[in-house]
Each structure stands twice: as C-alpha cells, then as structure tokens.
Amino acid sequence: MPETAHSEFWKDIKPVENVFREGGLPEVYHAKIAEGDERYWVPISETVSSKPIWISPSKNMWADVLMSKSAGLVNRHYHPHPIWAYTISGKWAYLEHDWTATAGDFIYETPGESHTLVCYEHEDPMKVFFVVSGPLMWLDDDGNTIGHFDVFDYMKAAREHYDKVGIGADYVDTLIR
Q1: Is 9 helix (H, G, I), strand (E, B) or coil?
Q2: Beta strand pairing status for 100-102 and 91-94?
C-alpha cells in the first residue's frame, strides 16, 4: 500500500483487489537506484561498474545504472538493437558523436550503431540509467567484432560478483522478470 492520501482528489478510490493475473509476477521496485551499498555495483571494465535493476533473459534485455567515479571507458561496441539512456549525474559521451551528456540528458541509441563510451573527470560520479536490448558486440580498433556481452553474460558476471562480495548469487533471481 502506498502512503496514505490526505487531500488528493483520489483518496477514496479502492485499489484493485486481484492485482496479478494467474502466472503474473510482481513488479521490481528499487528506491534510489543510483545510491546505496556499493557491493551491488558489478564491474564491467576496469573503470566502470553496473548496478542491475531489472533483467529479462527471454527478451535479452536489462536495465541498469552504469557508474564511473573518475575518467572511465566502456570498450568500443556495436548495438544491433535499441538502447535508452538517462543521465543521472556526471558527464559522459561517445567519441563518435558531437554531444556530451550531463545530468538530465536523455539519449536514444538506434539499432546499428557503433561507439566508444567515455566518462569524464567530474565533481559527481557518472551515473546513467540504461535500458539495454540485445547484446553488446565488442569491437577492435578497426570496428571488427571480437566478442559479445548479452543478458546471459551479464547475469553470470553479476552472480559471480554477488557471490564474491557476500550478497549471494541468488540475488540476481530477484531481478528477473
């Protein structure tokens, strides 16, 4: 139940009794997704970590908050599917574009895009909420595919990290929908 309404016009409306259809799963709710215990941030590169928020193996998708506390780099990669990003804090960009994102900026990445994500030195850590669909295809300096990172790689990395830091690998299961 949310907090009690006081003067809102809808305060006397009854909630739906049967919220979930048969087989339906509860929502994933996280308060203050860009804050909290740093053990929940999974290393993605030497300078960038990811905090998983929602994971869908059946759609090969995930939502996360990417973080870098200083100058950072996510390897050059290609997206065969769309990506959505909302900048929470800090400053970041793609070397291949003419914009630099700061707090409040939104980016939609079209399918078929290759780029190199960089994070700038800034008084606030770079934190970006991403919704990733499909794999990241790692690229060499010439743009040739040299590997991939999909939802299954992400879950494996998160499980290993959470086991290592004492949270437990099964925490990942609470994020899967």
Answers
A1: coil
A2: antiparallel
**Contact call for residues 80 and 51 (beta carbons, < 8 A):** no
Facing residues of 106 across strands? 86
Biggest CA–CA distance in the chain, Å, is 62
CA gap 48, 131 in Å, rounded? 16
Residue 96 CB neighbour total at 10 angstroms: 11
62-104 residue pLDDT tens: 999 999 999 999 989 999 999 999 999 999 999 999 999 999 9
Token digits of residue 64: 């996360």
Inform me whether the pLDDT recorded for 1 exceeds 80: no
Range 21-58 burial, b when 16+ CB lie within 10 A, else e: eeeeeeeeebeebbeeeeebbbebeebbbbbbbbbeee
Query: Helices (DSSP H) in 19-173: which residue ranges?
Result: 151-164
C-alpha dihedral sign at 35, 110, 81, 117: negative
Residue 145 β-bridge partners = 139
SS3 label, residue 91: strand
pTM value > 0.85:
yes
